[in-house]
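User: Hi! I'm working on a homework problem where we have to compare a predicted structure to a textbook description. Could you give me the structure for the chain below?
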Amino acid sequence: MHNPQLNKEGELQHLITLEGLPKAVITRILDTAASFVSVSDREVKKVPLMRGKSVFNLFFENSTRTRTTFEIASKRLSADVINLNISASSASKGESLLDTIDNLAAMHADMFIVRHSQSGAPYLIAKHLIETNQQHVHVINAGDGRHAHPTQGLLDMYTIRHYKKNFSNLTVAVVGDILHSRVARSDIHGLTTLGVPEVRAIGPRTLLPGGLEQMGVRVFTDMNEGLKDVDVIIMLRLQNERMTGALLPSAQEYFKSYGLTPERLALAKPDAIVMHPGPMNRGVEIDSAVADGAQAVILPQVTFGIAVRMAVMSMLAGS
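Assistant: Happy to help. Predicted structure tokens:
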């Protein structure tokens, strides 16, 4: 089965998921992103690689942070950005998703950044563009349902590589609401593809999906045990808006068992880094002392995220 994300030459055509993406392609994205980051790591360079191209932000689900970083990335590449609040327009008129896409493609769109509450929506759009011979339009998945968030996964990989130099001898723990987290899935696929020898998933049984072991992940329900000697800790946000029923007793109870405190952080390696895709629930997943502490790399993640999104967009535009 041909990977719809790659063209016949094996170059990136769409970015839908990190699952099944070759290690060489992921590495190339990270290397390209590195070329956009200034020597001081504080800022991202402006490069006019997409002048005259139109990028449409199609957010069927709200997200200020992701949309803003894609917008900044587009502008750093000198692309024209069109933000559409879809939930308020075509969807409410009963227009189908693919009709909307065809109409926008007719407006000379070069790229769609798609965020959708339904898993598989970006894949459906990419497949439709290939079938209708509109290969010049590229799709980037900015998060779909519980399925994937590939650019967040890539910026997490970039951050880990930046601080730890390589992936070959790391133990990485992903902590929290893994069941509802598309970030966790993208991170796990990225980490295993890049050769991380030990990926751990830590969380209450009610928030751990089945099949993690098949993905090559070690599962822990005890936070203290799971954090022992890890190099990287990726904390996840509790996805209250995607939860149905009582999966957790209370936020306080959750923090007591799975919150990252200075005491728990001390169980990891002394030079372990702490990551979080944001926005953080302080006092629920993470103690403020840790979030603002020396081992947290949460703000650099945001800067690197702009460079990574620029890398993906410029590679797609160049294919």
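For your comparison, note the following. The two ends are 21 Å apart (CA to CA). Residues 282 and 288 are 6 Å apart (CA to CA). Good luck with the assignment!
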